[in-house]
Amino acid sequence: MNNFVGRFYHITTYGCQMNVHESEKIRAALQSLGMLETNDVNLAKVIVFNTCCVREGAEDRAYNNIVTLQSIKKEDPGKIIAICGCMPQQKKGKYNLAEKLPFVDIIIGTHNINQLAQYVKDYAKTKRRVIEIVDKPKGKMDFNTPVRDDHINAYVNIIYGCDKYCTYCIVPYVRGRETSRPPKEIYEEVKDLVQNQGYKYITLLGQNVNSYGKDLVDTMSFSELLSFLCTIEGDFKIKFMTSHPMDLGDDLIKVMKNEYKVAKTLHLPVQSGSDKVLQKMNRHYNIKHYKSIIRKARKAMPTISLSTDIIVGFPGEDEKDFNQTLKLLKKVKYDQVFAFSYSKRSGTPATEFDGQIEEKEKNLRLNKLLRLQKIIQQDNLKKYFKQTYDCLIQQINGVAVGITDGGKEIYIPGYKYFNQNYFAPVQVEGVRNHKLSGVINDRKR
Ligand code: SAH
Ligand code: SF4
Ligand code: F3S
Description:
- By secondary structure, the protein is α/β, with parallel strands linked by helices.
- 33% of the residues lie in helices and 22% in strands.
- The mean pLDDT is 94.
- Iron/sulfur cluster binds at residues 162, 164-166, 169, 171-172, 207-208, 244.
């Protein structure tokens, strides 16, 4: 094969679903060079690190792992090592990658990830180091038909970038401005995934999906896009992430309620339970507004699964603010909470704010919050009793299991018809030892 660079490649991915999905595109690009994936770095000729910098911990983890490749490269100088994604895209990252990692051959950012295969080919030919960080997307970001990991759930990008500039967050600086994909393109991709490839869930991705369409000439709102995608025939459901509370309107709740194909699950990051902190975070909503969205969503869809993101120890967060966050968790009783200790990101405004909190105190708060949420989640199980959830029926260890839209497993003892993945309503009949069991209830659909 004339493009041949080597037999195997290896990709390590850090960060959010966006990155996971981008790695699926990188995979396709490398496979177009005739390469195969391996999970053995020693075997790989091309080694890619797709990185994240949302918190310092994510950066440190990637950096420390990349450093270990130095010896591998020494042993076999023919290997090609590439770093891409959010970490190199930062203006003032913690590490000066090009200088500190001289054995890395290719360093690119988020906007030219679509050129990676070309860079690999060029490097293989010339052995000239490629260090290229650009400010704007270099060509189309949907650069290859992704080679997906998962065969049940498929990620589909609908909007790139973020214009929100929350004061703690690096994402707008490393992902650029909001850019929506044309609806027809998304429609065709989803149709193919559902009708030709048998996917059961489509997860639409964007840093803020509610901003979808605002930048398009033939504009279409996010809720309109959902309705449009629901016209695709097939037995599938649509999930999406992430929603910003500021732009989430009643139209979205209405579409979620009315469209059977939209999964009844919502990830709605609140970040803090204190209005004072939310304002300093530049989140543009208060807790009263946030709670009103939750109330409306639950009223429209009583069994909806809710999850959120929380940052503890944001600069200036005092005991009272923190307690308001705990109070919010007790009130909403989320099905899942992703909580993080505030991490200073250079170049973001909050890094300069007064009232920075010590690591030790942040960790104490984080642990306290996680302990509370654990109790809430255990207690939440009660609410499943006698409720009916539309589930994807799957087989786990020879037993039928219904997976709710929120990802909870309901065992269906004695049920035999589970050779294929399909959706069916399951009524919960038992809650024991943190496990749910139930029966198929076809009359409810
Ligand atoms: N666009 C999404 C995801 C952003 S990153 C959204 O707006 O929700 C995912 C989560 O990481 C954020 O919701 C936030 O809770 C957390 N995060 C972002 N920057 C952070 C920082 N500097 N320190 C700690 N957590 C952070
Ligand atoms: Fe970051 Fe805020 Fe954008 Fe989310 S909405 S990616 S938290 S700036
Ligand atoms: Fe991380 Fe970049 Fe995602 S910073 S969270 S991989 S957008």
